[in-house]
Amino acid sequence: MSRRTGGRARDVVVTGIGLCLPGIQSPVFSADDLWQVASSGMSCLIKKGVYYGTVGLSAEAFEERAPGIPEFFSRHYTDAHRFGLVSLTQACADADLDVHSDLEEAAVLVGRGGVDANIDSYLAVLRADPATLPVAEAMEMFVAAEQAVTPSDVALVQGALTRSRGANFTVSCGCASSALQIGNAQRMIAAGEVDIAVVTGVDVFSVTLIRNIQRLLSGAQHSYEALRSQDMPALLPSFDSLMRPYDRRADCINHGEGSATLVMESREHAFGRDARLYGQVLAQATTRDGLANPLACDETGKALVSAVRRCLGDTWEIGQVPYVHGGSDGNVVVTTFEANAIKELYGPASRDLLMTSQEGCFGHNGAPAGCLGVAVTLLMMNHGQVCPTANCEEPAENLTFDPVPGTVTRPLDFDYALSFNYQVGGVKSAILLGSPDV
Hints:
This protein is α/β, with parallel strands linked by helices.
């Protein structure tokens, strides 16, 4: 990854990658850790009743990577707080920034899709009896609740850690949450509102909740299919087998937890401090299928095509983009609309397109997916290699692209790429990425 000494001021570049994701022996924290997992098609999912990606962040690892936080506050942190703070500090270290002093004017933006991490604090307050609760316990409960009962929980503690005076807000758009924040950061920097932004996606899914959903669906599946009409969605698949995006055996989704953070800067700001550049965020667009059903999606992929074309605008052409980071999570419906969209965008040339998904590495982790997709795609661009689709061994017959099955990278010299993310209800996000010098 090269350094440059000049360029246009309002180009938006990525200078730091930080993670707190499931690993094999220990959590994945750095860009190098991420590459080791993704480039080998490794799966960090573990089966405990259901397949799930667990970070396993110890108290010692948290303190080492996010030191100096007053214990009065940190003892009330949920895993979402801890994961988000660790990925933030890792990204700042990667970008050679002091998390306590260099982000005072930065935008601190967070994407959150779920509220599983907030439930315990919420229920504790809801069930507390003010008449009998000791004052000291009431104060502790108040601090815990103020930090943890809203989806803006991680932005709250990140803003405090960075002493930020800039924009500090959370977007919740399901699994497209951090993708939308990447778009917000790109537009804010390009417009000159800020010179630097840190974007974090973080989510925690309750394994108990997932198991209960599985049991509920198993009991309801037969009756539901008998009465389901065309406008009703199919029930979600089970979670007890391994997710296999783009594989002919794909029949389920596995979840995971964790956080991913990107440091984004104007090119001028990055050059001014001689920062290393991973690449550029050129554009981001969001569309929706336009359906009345809040749980369904249009399998034609037309909304995804529209999002891509909005990203390309009049500046770029689809033929310049030989790689796409897909958002497939093992759901065959997602694979169908992606395949249809790629066929419409690329035509006959789609058969040569490399399009992979790394969801099988860490599980479908919700809000982090946008930041993670950008991070791993820029690493592929820098290495000149496309990572395989984790857990894909036998590509499905309906694919209109090459999913790079197996566990070996594919050589590809490329300067442009797309990264896709989706939310239940037909929301589609596309991000256009470029190498540092285009």
